[in-house]
Amino acid sequence: MTTALPAPSELEAARVLLARLGITPDLLVRASAPATMPTFDDHIDRVEQTVSDGTPRAYRAYWQRIRAAWGPCQKAATGSCVTLPVQTADELHRWPRR
């Protein structure tokens, strides 16, 4: 697929806009580095630090299950990271209680 080059007037308009925004080509190049998506472990750690005192008691068992299944996976990659068996609603509710 080929794309047509922008007209000189369009390039100048882009330069003017970027100058008004204070954006330099160097900033664009540095900002284009891909950001890393946090893993489920990273995310759960952050959540645990920010919630109220009683919340971990209520949700820790669920967080542990998420860590066991997807912990080191990036949140955007769950489909390709781990394939979980399909479970019926009855099987999902048979988790052992402590």
Structure at a glance:
With 98 residues, the protein is an all-alpha fold. It has helices at 8-21, 25-31, 40-50, 55-70, 78-81, 89-92. The chain has a domain at 36-75.
Could you explain how this protein is built, in words?
The protein is mainly alpha-helical and 98 residues long. Helices cover 57% and strands 0% of the residues. It has a domain at 36-75. The protein is built from six helices and no strands. α3 packs antiparallel against α4 (55-70). It is elongated and about 70 Å long. The termini are far apart.
Helix content: 55-70%
Mean pLDDT: 79
Order of helices and strands: HHHHHH
Shape: elongated
Note the total helix count. Answer: 6
Question: How many beta-strand elements?
Answer: 0
Uncertain segments: none
Structural class: mainly alpha
Rg measurement, Å: 23 Å
Major sheet characteristics: none
Distance between the termini: 59 Å
How much strand? under 5%
